[in-house]
Design brief:
This protein has two domains: 72 residues, no CATH class; 181 residues, HUPs (Rossmann fold), CATH 3.40.50.620. A hairpin with a 4-residue loop joins strand 5 and strand 6. It is 33% helix and 9% strand. The protein is of the alpha/beta class.
Length: 287
């Protein structure tokens, strides 16, 4: 399907022109009360709700899932800039970027196409000072709206309730409380999100596509640089003067919380310093 044919699949809950809501009647084809649009994804297996509001929501979810699936095919192998332009043209102000502030590659790339876009940063309370500094520099250098998202509890409050050093006793739970839950709450106003995820980073990301359906959050997930190698990332940084977290040049090619990120030896796997010795490779945001 051509990219120009994908926009009519966007649900009426979106503001595709970045200002005025699109009328539901101008987009949706006639749908009988007992049917939903056909799709091959997981949402198609749901029973059709009797409640009109729930049925309308399910119809929107199925349409969004179908949009993601068809965009994934249309944009397979497309240049990152084309993926970004499709995403920002399609979702308008209901799309955001998420960034860990290891570098500003995805921020640089997207803000050139869509200045003023929201950038969500998860401030876990455990970050390196250099990461916070990179966040602050990004908000000054790039034409973006940076949103600093914090967990419901401070580190001290979490320690009081669950005991100190939860990150070492139960890193999965710590990541869930300080990353996964805050992100899901932060993403609620949006219909799509853009990430800097790349296939080569971990085995769990090897089948990632440029556009995906995020079933857990019922959103479209956009990964414009999914096929880039580290050499391509480095070249883009050099050619465009992209901000980079100074820790990258000090042996930290992948940066998370200071409590769970160690320096890696030259030539070692870039993410081997994340939760070293635990067997854990993902925080839960992208899996």
């Amino acid at each position: 399907m051509a990219l120009s044919q994908l926009r009519p699949l966007v649900p009426a809950t979106l503001c595709g022109n970045r200002s005025r809501p699109v009328s539901r009647d101008t987009i949706k084809p006639a749908i009988s009360p007992t049917t939903v649009p056909p799709t091959t994804g997981p949402a198609a297996t749901r029973a059709v709700p009797a409640d009109p509001a729930q049925r309308a929501h399910l119809e929107d979810v199925i349409r969004m899932e179908r949009l993601a699936m068809e965009a994934a095919e249309a944009l397979a192998g497309a240049p990152a800039e084309d993926v970004v332009r499709w995403a920002t043209d399609t979702f308008g102000d209901r799309i955001c970027i998420t960034s860990s502030m290891t570098d500003a590659v995805i921020i640089n790339l997207v803000s050139r196409v869509c200045p003023g876009i929201d950038v969500v940063f998860l401030d876990t309370g455990y970050h390196f000072a250099e990461t916070i500094g990179t966040r602050d520099a990004v908000s000054t250098v790039y034409p973006v709206n940076l949103l600093n998202v914090t967990p419901a509890q401070t580190v001290a409050e979490q320690d009081e309730q669950m005991g100190p050093r939860l990150y070492s006793r139960n890193p999965d739970l710590c990541c869930y409380l300080r990353k996964v839950v805050p992100l899901e709450q932060a993403l609620e106003p949006y219909d799509a999100w853009i990430t800097g995820v790349r296939k080569e980073e971990t085995d769990a990301r090897s089948d990632t596509r440029a556009v995906q359906w995020d079933a857990r959050r019922e959103m479209v997930k956009v990964n414009p640089i999914v096929d880039w190698t580290q050499d391509q990332v480095d070249a883009y940084i050099a050619e465009n003067g992209v901000l980079v977290n100074p820790l990258v040049y000090d042996g930290y090619p992948s940066i998370g919380c200071a409590t769970c990120t160690a320096r890696v030896e030259p030539g070692a796997d870039a993410r081997s310093g994340r939760w070293a010795g635990t067997g854990k490779t993902e925080c839960g945001i992208h899996t």
